[in-house]
Amino acid sequence: MINRRKFIALSALGSAALIDKKMMAAEQTNSIGAKPVVISTWDAGIEANKAAWKILGAGGRALDAVEAGVMVTEASQNCCVGLGANPDRDGFVTLDACIMDEFFNCGSVAFLERIKHPIAVARRVMEKTPHVMLVGEGAQRFAIAEGFPLEGQTLSPNAQKAYDEWLKKSEYKPVINIENKNNRGSSVPSQFESGEFNHDTIGMVAMDAKGNLSGSCTTSGMGFKMRGRVGDSPIIGAGLFVDNEVGACTATGQGEDVIRIVGSHTVIELMRQGLSPEAACKKAVERLVKIKGAKAKEIQVAFLALNKKGVTGAFAIHKGFSYALKTEGVEKLVTAKSLLAG
Ligand code: ASP
Question: Which residue's CA is minimally distant from atom 8 of ligand 1?
């Protein structure tokens, strides 16, 4: 997985695609208006977008792209997505994911254990059951019946170190870290091992060559969370929402607060009223900050959206949130604007 520093270094090596004029223009506007296009949360999105692009660039469907894209992150040794991620406070990795297509079809799994690709299970829930959401043991049983292998329960080496470190204080602090220059990026092992960086998620939304939208979202949620805790990421309307007439949105950060304002759905409804993706994300963030009052300082939430014209935008409570964008000839990280300085 590529972190931001490595990505900047790669840029400095002069990859033509990264420095063309199109990209410079995109840097200034945070949007491109091209299709196909895929965007995803955080630095890990760069690698995930590459996998999504293999499908989108070949004329494939956005739904297939957003599934394949986030599976890359699920399989990586990321602190906060997939089985390599940080466990809950009892030492078990529990995973949440959801997916949504251009026809309002959606599927979701939550509190799923020992399955490597929760996003693929979420898609099966969507396609093979009359339901939207399966959780816990039932979701695992369904996955096994669908042929997904039951993986072991051993923590990844990084997660074990982080958990051992966390156990020293066993401090239950269910607050999402606020990124700053010393503490950001899910691919920074020292922070992973120290347990300092306690969250991350990959949310991805895409538009294919036909102009259809889909989205996916997958996470292990908050590190060292209470057993059974489920965040916004598998909740349709909160962590992800797609309306093929309007746009697609995903969220990351403090899940409880994203749920409180049904964040992604709110952003889509604001876009329906004519706001740009960035302006809609900003309005949703403002709503949350107003509700939270002084406590807004303690949490991070970010929204990332794409409209029907292929324009992208994001907004966060605090600085430090970035998203990865891929379209023809463009591959880059975009730093989101934020409401509060710190
Ligand atoms: N939203 C996720 C959760 O609360 C965490 C994250 O996005 O970092 O589970």
Answer: 200
Query: Residue 239 C-alpha to ligand 1 middle, in angstroms?
Result: 8
Whether 76 contacts 82, CB under 8 Å: yes
The reply to whether 101 and 3 lie within a common domain is no
| Annotated catalytic residue, options 41, 73, 94, 201 | 201
- Ligand 1 neighbourhood includes 222 CB (under 6 angstroms): yes
Same domain, 318 and 329: yes
Q: Are 156 and 267 contained in the same domain?
A: yes
Count of the separate structural domains present in the chain: 2
Instruction: Kindly report, residue by residue over 234-260, the tens digit of the pLDDT.
Output: 999 999 999 999 999 999 999 999 999
Q: What's the CA gap between 333 and 319, in Å, rounded?
A: 14
Q: 8 lies in which domain range?
A: 1-30
Paired strand residues for 302: 252, 316
Residue 188 has pLDDT above 70, yes or no: no
Q: What whole-number percentage of the chain has pLDDT above 90? A: 74
Cβ(158)–Cβ(198) under 8 Å? no
201 is catalytic: yes
